[in-house]
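Human: My hope is that you can spare some time for a protein that puzzles me. I am handing you a single protein, as its sequence and its fold in token form. Could you go through the record with me and say what the backbone is doing? Take your time, and here it is.
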Amino acid sequence: MKVAIISDIHGNLEALNTALESLGKRGALRIYCLGDVLGYGANPLECLELVKTRAEVTLLGNHDAAVAGLEDLANFNDFAQAAVIWTQNVLSASHQDFLASLPMESKISEIHLVHAAPRNPKDWTYIFSDYEAQSQFTAIEGQICFVGHSHVPGEYFERIPERCGKRLVNVGSVGQPRDRDPRLCYVIYDTDSGQVQFVREEYDIETAAGKIRRAGLPEFLADRLFWGW
């Protein structure tokens, strides 16, 4: 069975719609969302409703937690703070309650899902490199762990010979890639073969950026979509 793992949509409806269309064409039967549905983009409500409808699992990301009042805004930069406050004013109390109810991690058969990192998920640890990934493997329950949070895709393998070789996969970001490639990114995982496929798709960045500007959100949040950073 093919499973799509998406993460870090960040209110980017154009990117999310394109990703959903893409994964459908690729035969993904289930969708797991690793969190940060909100933040930065101008369509938080629409993205949240889509994910609620389409994703079998949705996790809590740090921006989702901030919107729900569970995370201190002092931990965010000025751009992220502005986006969180704007989003809080757009969403209803029931939407914020839904966010607050989301789990931080999930285990499905051999698959471990978490927004940031399997070791102490509440610390919101970023994984950018193999060196940072190695300290996480003993916390992985199952054979493969999918994470988001850094917006930078990557696949890492456990290097300790006496253990079964576990994998940690950063699925990248649907709504705000930061690896200098502005195309959206998500992963298709084949549960039978164990194959991990990174999928990149172009989407309507111009429209997504225009919405950010018209909403009065920081200009930088619109510009960075074109840079992939």
Remarks:
- Residues 49 and 79 are 24 Å apart (CA to CA).
- Residues 2-105+172-227 form a domain with the Purple Acid Phosphatase; chain A, domain 2 fold (CATH 3.60.21.10).
- The longest helix spans residues 13-25.
